[in-house]
Amino acid sequence: MAESNCDILLRIYPQISELDKLQATLTVNCVLNSFICYTAIMLNILTIYAITKTSALPKPLKTLLVSVAVSDVGVGLIVEPFYLSLFFKWLQLQNPDCTFFLGLHVILMLFSKASFLNVMAISVDRFLAVELHLRYQTIVTHKRVVGVVISIWTFTILSSLALLLFPFAVLSTILSVIGTICLLVTTAIYCKIYYITRRHKREIQAQQVQEQEARSRQNSEMRNLARNMKTAVGVLYVYFAFLVCYFPRFIILLARAKNVPSIVVASVQLYTYTLMFFNSSLNPIIYGWTIRHIRHAMVDTLRKLYTNRVF
């Protein structure tokens, strides 16, 4: 007889018999997640404000970055409080019912998938900026990118709610295939960006230009190429951070699904969720570190807040 979604979800989380041995782990993770909840909300709100105030970034890129930041705010504002309430129950040696776990998994899938698909969309955008070069602004318009963002959120909402209607095994298989394809495509995109950038540099440096006007155009192309490459590298760091923060969770969930009996596995699982949520606080730091215009806007905003509070 096939397992219900409730049976599967209840099996991949710590059991009542394990909670007594996990008290120290639960306490540490509760403290960590309380901190992450705060930083995810505050840092991403600051990032959204900084992005909207940054005029140097193209509108399509700004829209995609804001969409990622919104998904990260959702983690801190919705997912983390839900998850913390689960810790409070576990610390009291109580296990919530199936409805609670279904709700947690729905919102967890919603914001994690939205974040991943938005990061992938930014990767495609940076690829087109490097590949199309001067034609980028005419092809990648703000209206089209808004349509892509709406499509991403519509897909993630519907696919997450599908957990309430369809068998978890079937749904997870379909989403795993889609996720694997997305990962391979994104990896291929960054390899292509690397080779395109090297090719452009060789072509520009090989030009033997004597006239001042041509030299100015060459310098302009080099600056534009460098700017696109910097933002592409910034998003690459976001992509790597996503992989590092999310991959351990999938390994542990696989171990739990295969009935690997170990209190160590149950303990590590809690830390993998915390690491996954930490990704939402890490993204704004990466933006500020790698994208100069966003960093300056964030610093200016913090300076104004400090000045207003002091005076």
Describe the structure concisely.
The chain has 311 residues and is mainly α.
Element layout with pairings:
Elements (H helix, E strand, L loop, with lengths): L4 H8 L3 H4 L3 H31 L5 H33 L6 H35 L3 H4 L2 H20 L6 H39 L5 H46 L5 H28 L1 H19 L1
Helix pairs in contact: 1-5, 3-4, 3-10, 3-11, 4-5, 4-7, 4-10, 5-7, 5-8, 5-9, 8-9, 9-10, 10-11
Describe this protein's structure.
Helix content is 86%, strand content 0%. Helix 3 runs parallel beside helix 10 and helix 4 packs antiparallel against helix 5. It is mostly helical. The protein is built from 11 helices and no strands.
End-to-end gap: 69 Å
State Rg. 22 Å
Helix count? 11
Mean model confidence by pLDDT: 81
Q: Topology as H/E string?
A: HHHHHHHHHHH
Characteristics:
single chain; 311 residues; mainly alpha; 11 helices; 86% helix; globular
